[in-house]
Each structure stands twice: as structure tokens, then as C-alpha cells.
Design brief:
Elements: H1 13-44, H2 50-62, H3 66-75, H4 79-103, H5 108-140, H6 146-171, H7 177-198, H8 225-233, H9 236-253, H10 259-267, H11 271-295, H12 297-300, H13 304-331, H14 337-362, H15 371-403, H16 407-432, H17 436-451
Length: about 450
Amino acid sequence: MAHQGSTFTGLGWLAIIRIGLVQASIGAMVMLTTTVLNRLMVVEYALAAAVPAGLVGWHYAVQLCRPLWGHGSDKGRSRALWIIGGIVILGLGSILAVQTTVMMSGSFGMAMALGVLAYTLIGIGVGASGTSALALLASGVAPDRRAAAAAMTWIMMVAGIVVSAITVGSLLQPFSPERLLSVATGLLCVCIAVTSLAVFRIEPRGGIPSGAFAETAKTEPAPNFREALREILAEKAARRFTLFIFVSMMAFNMQDLILEPFAGLIFGMTPGESTQLGGMQSSGVLAGMIVAGIGGSAFAGRMPVELRHWIVFGCCGSAVALAFLAMAAVVGPGWPIVVNVFALGFCNGLFAVAAIGAMMGLAGAGAKTREGVRMGVWGAAQAIAFGLGGLIGALGVDAARRVMASDGEAFQMIFAIEASLFVLAAVLAVRATSAAPRIEEELQVRETEVFA
């Protein structure tokens, strides 16, 4: 399948797997900074949960620039360079974040100053590399493979989180600052090396043509950044989908910064044990993604209407799992916490892979805009939601622990609020996909004209 006389026929499955290795590396490095370091600050160094939440929230705030980086990736000749550059910056920021955590017991002011710099670099690295990787998929993968490619790479990212969480959790026992630094350095070196090898010559010489396999077959130059944003925000489907992404990802991330402190404070788990519990949740996410994919709709369908039931079922299931987690907060030891956390991850995976498939299906729907900008807008919505969700969860726990009689009741309240957000996300998912049949018909007509 050529594109306007070009010899480019799209990225094959091997190339898709290689992009998945990039996502796995990003996930592994982010796991270190948002779970392991977060727990150490709250439990081992006895800091308020708002401290790591503020730092993690800042790295999400930096990612508000994702649409701009996506636009730069659209304009450039090689998305692979953006990916490698972002991964290197992410690695440098992660090492600095580890140093920051170790310094927390000494010079707190200096540690916080370095922490802001570290999480700024982390935000830049995640945004630049992640947006460019997804844009590479959207622009270089044929439409009938797009949802499957998105699901596969996301599954590989979760697998990277699971493997790194279990491995790091094992290597950190017994815990010491020196061991933490050596384990983190080894992990980051491996991730940078894997990413560099994965994207080596993944694009044809001169780069993949922007929109090479987009349904609109865009041949004119990409619009400027402001014009691209105006086009996206003028679309009802894009606006509704952005709102759904925001609410669902806020719900998804509210427990992320408090789950490991919860395991330590309520269930008395060690750093290694709580890290492995986080890995169990990621294992559930991975299982949920695989089940949704094997179910057929996530891989066969490209438009949100075909994925709606997966999204809604995953959101409602997540709400139920969180309701049980709220009960666990007051019951304490003896509750099947591992099973509960795995179930939460499983339902998260069901809705996440369906949402990703819908996102990829709409990535090339613009008349002029390129995939990088559109993925950047949705990535920015996700980043804002992740940052606010984590910050609200941590601040809420801090405030509730001061007001309520027990830590368990404080965590119970936050988990209940998170469950309510997932119910709201299910409602928004139905509204966000209501315009999908019309859009799908339009895109099928365009695709027939382009690829006939």
C-alpha cells in the first residue's frame, strides 16, 4: 500500500513492537519516580504526602507543553530523534530525583530545589518521547492496524512497569540509600540503551511522511500551532473525548501516590513489599488490556462507538474495586489486599486499552492537523488529570488524617471519591462516543477515496 507514489508502505509489526519497547522504558523510569520515591518520602522520611505529590504534579504540569512538542515532531524530519532526546532527558531527571530523595533527611531546602529541577526534566522527557512515539504510530501505521498497534505498545508499557517494579522491589531488600542509587542507575542505563536500539533506523530515510496513512491523506503543509489547536477544539467529538480523558485519568491516578503509603501505614508493608504490591496492580492492568484485546473490539474496531462497552465496563468495574479498597482501609490486615489491588488494575486495563484504541482512531481525523498535535492535546489533558488526581489524593489524605480519628478512615474517604469519579467517567464515555457513527462514516468514505 503506497502513499502517492512513495515506496513507504507503513510500519510493520516488528517496528510496532520496537515502539512498544520505547513505551516500556518510559513506564519503567516513571514507575521509579512516582511509586518508589513517593513511598520513601512519605514513610521512610516521614514527609507529608503533599511533598512528593507536589513534585509529581509539577512534572505533569510541565507536560502541558505536549501539544507544542507534538507540533515540533510534526514539523521535523525524524520523530526518532525526539524520542531518543526525550528518553535521555528523562533518565537525567530520574537520577537527579533519586539524589533528591536521599537528601530529604538532611538539607530539605536544597533537596526541594533540586527536586523541582529533577521533575521538570522528567516532565520534559516523558512528554517529548511519549508524544512522539504515539505520533509515530498514528502517522506510520496503516488505519486497519492502528488500534491494535496502540493496544500492543500500551501493553508493553505496562509490562515494563510490572517487570521493573517486581525487579526493583526485590533488589531494594534490604533497603539502603546506596542500594537505591545503584539499582536506579542500572535501571535507567538499561532503559536508555533499549530505547536507542529500538528506534535505530525505524523510520525510512528522510522520515515517515506526516499523515502517510491518515484517513484524510493530508498533503498540504501542516498549519501553525494556533491554527491546529483551533481546528481540534472546534470539533465536538474531540472536545467530548478530551473531557472524558480528563475525568477518567484523574480517577485512574488518584490512588497512585497514596497506594504504597497506604500499604505501609495500614498493612505494615516494607518498601520492597509495597513496591511489589504496586507491581501487582500493574499486572492487573496488563491482564485487563490483554483480555480487552482478545475480546476483539479493541483490536478490530477503530472508532469509539465500537469500544464504548469496554470503556464503560472498565470504569464501572474500577469503581466497584475502589469501593472494596475503601472497606479494606478500615478492616486492615486480613483483608485480601493483593486480590483487591489486582482487580482494580484489571478493570483499569479494560477501559484504558479501549480508550487508547478510540484515541488512535480519531488521531488522523482532522482536515489539516497532524497526529502529533492531536496526540499532544489528549496527552496534555491526561497529564493535567494525572497531576491533579495525584495531588488531590495526597492532599486529601493529609487533610483527612489530621481531621479524622484514624488513618484508615482518611484513606477510605479518598478511595470513595475516586470510585465516584469513575462512575462519572462512564457517563462521559457514552456522551463522548455519541457522535462516532457519523465520524466513522465520513472517514470510511475518505479512506475509500485515498486507498482505492
